[in-house]
Structures are given as structure tokens and as C-alpha cells.
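ok so for the tutorial part 2 we go from a plain amino acid sequence to predicted C-alpha cells. step 1 is just haveing the sequence, like this:
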Amino acid sequence: MVSRVIPVDPFDLVVFGGTGDLARRKILPGLYRRFRDGQMPQQARVIAAARSDMDEAAYRAEIRAAIEEYIAPRHRDADTLDAFLSRVGYCAVDADGQDGWPGLAARMRPDVVRAFYFSVAPALFGSLAERLHDHGIADAQSRIVVEKPFGNDRASARALNETLAAYFDETQIYRIDHYLGKETVQNLMAVRFANILFEPLWNAQFVDHVQITVAETVGVGGRGSYYDGAGAMRDMVQNHLMQLLCLIAMEPPHRFEPDAVRDEKLKVIRALDPVAPGDIVRGQYAAAGGMTGYLEDVSNPASRTESYVALRVHVSNWRWKGTPFYLRTGKRLRARSSEIAVTFREPPHSIFGEDASWRENVLIIRLQPNEGIKLRVMIKEPGPGGMRLVNVPLDMSFAQALGPEGADIPDAYERLIMDVIRGNQTLFMRGDEVEAAWAWTDPVIAGWESRGERPCRYDAGTSGPEDALMLMHRDGRRWREIAP
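step 2 — the prediction. this is what the C-alpha cells look like for a chain of 484 residues:
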């Protein structure tokens, strides 16, 4: 299989927070891969900006070490790495002050795409936008990329939108959610809208329920102070799981272009019913198997913040009325697994009689690990002895179906950064979409806070709290096993 490389225009990409973890772990290694694969033109430049006082040689040494740590040896070579690093610069800039801004302005070139990645705390978004404007560094064609968390509730999200709108048009603002850059997430749209097979069945008449799972084996790690003020609902459901829900439930856009896709996602969010208290399960991992508990990890023995949440959600429109969507996400679970499972209804009548081996058809979109798409169908079990049915998968893992190129899937950040340079906002969130997601999320959080509920405890390394099982069992359903 030969991949098609779509070149981009020459650009200057400024990464604010260039010495931070995200820049070292994702952004710069991802850009190196794009350079290695020929998607970065020779005239492209990357300028890291941060408060640290260092020269370019020292910064390039840091990025060389980061690329050697995060890029496998088979995907790098000395000459290519040297060529990439020659295009990487560094500028000391004070985001809250005036130091360094004239020097950064002097580095910017005319007649190239200018993009600015805000890999910093949201509290600095306004300061960066203001200074880029005041120093004439950003123009009407420039783009800014902002990382989550985009607000802590609807009011703060709206305030951030208004702050950025004072200096940039909505068409210049790219609110990044790396889940939308995952290859399998985009394949979900291809499966739905490029094939006649599924779309006629993609509704409440044929779909029994949908499960969306994002399970992590790690705890809160070094994010304890942030996470304890956010929790799983704000950190994962309001953005990542919400986006996956939208792509599953949305109507076909009239065209695969930014506003057409985002209009349909917004309609889904606005069609979400309020979540009843009985349709929510919150959990908090406890020490087990040599792993510390949540309270120890955040150094807050009185914390009521959830590290796990499961919800039963309904989309009230003609397509989905009556079909539940079950969402769950958590930390310190049994395995790392992200997937969407669409379970179809059983046939209205079985000509084979009652068969204990009967299973529903399930379409499984696997985001990580082992990205791929699988469809479980019923067939006859081979051999004599009558008609015995067995449930088997029609499996398309990218590694098996597409060969080595399929296994070497670009990181989500690589794809999304290149989309910024191209000016393609399809896989980025719009301001009204973010506010609508918070408008649905805020009452859910306010409800359990007003009731004074504590999260259920669950042992680290398990599948989560027992109460989450009951959320499904009372409907006669069960969660899919969390498996690597």
C-alpha cells in the first residue's frame, strides 16, 4: 500500500510552552514524523517559546533527546533528525509580560502560514492572544491552537470564547481534542457515510444500545492537583466521550466540511436529555495490588472527586428515541481500552428456534490499543450434527488489513497540526459546540454536588464499581469486558 502525501504550504509554527511535557512528548516528535514523511516543506519552521532562558543549541539538544525517547529507532535516522532540528528554533518569551515579544515578532516571516499553538494553562490564553495582536505577530490569516481544558463550566468557557474573539475570528481558532485525530475515529465516519451497508440500520429501530468506553490503567499521576478539581466528568466526558457520542449519533452532513460536520454534532448535544440521578455512577479507585489509592495520589483524604463515571444517556430525536447510550471512563482500571460498540437488535423471528448460543450483531470500533473495526455475526458452526450457530468476528485490524503502513498509524497530534496548517477545522470544536457541551454537563455535576454524594470505592486494577454493573443489568444488558 502506497500512502498519499498531501503537502502543505510553508509555515511558521510557534509552540508556546515549548519546554513543557506535551511539546516534548507529542508535538515536536509528531512534527518530526511529518517531516520524515515529506509533509513538512523545506521552508517550514518551528519556533518554541517559553519563559526559560536557553539558547537554540540547548533546546535542540532537548528535542533530540525527546525524539530519541518517543520515536522508535526504525522511524528515525541521524540525517533526517539533523535536518528537522535545523528548522527548530527557540525564543524566550514572558507570556504575562513584555519580555521577548519584539524578538519573536522579528523572527516571523511574511507570506507564510503563521500558526500559534497554546500548549499552556488556559489562564494564559488571553495574555497570549492579546500580545500576539498588540505586537503585530498574528494577522488576519493566522491560526491559534488551544488545548483543553477549555473552561471549567459553561460560564468560564463562554468567557474564554469572548476573550479569544476579541483578537481572533472563529475561523482562526482551533480547539483541539486529540481523540478526533485518531485514525479509527475518522474511520467511523467513513464506515457510516461511505458504505450503504450500515446507514439504513443506524437508528433506534435496529440499534439496541451503544457503549462508549475509555478505560485507563494509569492513576492521576502528576496531574493530581488539576484532576482533583476536575474529575472524570469534566476531564473526559464533557469533551472526549461527548465527541465520540456526537460522531455516532449525528445525522449525515451534506458535505464533509468543517461547519457541515460541526452543525450536525451540535444538534446531537442539544438533543441530549438531562441525566437522571439513577442513571449516574461515580467511582474512586482505592489502593489494591500494590497500587496507591486516589486519595493518596491527590493528597486529599476528604476528596469527593470521581476517577470513574458511568452514565446512561438518551438522544431525543427521531433517529435515536428509545436507544440508550452507555458511557463510561475511569482510571486505574483492569486494562487500557478505548472502543465504541454498537449492538444491533435481534431478528424479530428465529427460524432456528431457541439457541443458547445466540448473540447480537455488534459493530466494534477500537480506538486503542490495536486500532481497528470488528463486526460480530452469527454463522453455522462447521461440522455435522445439525444447525448449530456460533458468533464470530469479521475482523479488520489496521495492522493485518493494511500491512506495515496500517500498523504505523500517525499520532492524532500529527494529523491535527497539519490540518491547522491547511486551514481545515473539520476535526476541531467550534465555540458554540463547547458551550453546548458544558450546558449539558453543568447540571449533572451540580446535581451530585447538591446531593452531597460520595463516589463508590473500587479496587485499583478492576473493571470499576459494582454499581456500574447494575446500571446495565437493570436494563437486561451488560458491559463489554474491559480487555487490552
